[in-house]
Amino acid sequence: xxxxxxxxxxxxxxxxxxxxxxxxxxxxxxxxxxxxxxxxxxxxxxxxxxxxxxxxxxxxxxxx
Length: 64
What we know:
Layout: H1 10-25, E1 30-39, E2 45-53
Antiparallel strand pairs: 1-2
């Protein structure tokens, strides 16, 4: 098998994620959160995205 993927820079990724964020912010019922959880060895952020419905989002954290 052979696979090819067009090179995807960190700038391309930031632009892509900003576009998703803008689309989510236009929807009143969509919850969007983007956070950096760690940095790669090159110093680039590893992003963690949460995209969900606001219907079940709690206003405070549940006790475990």
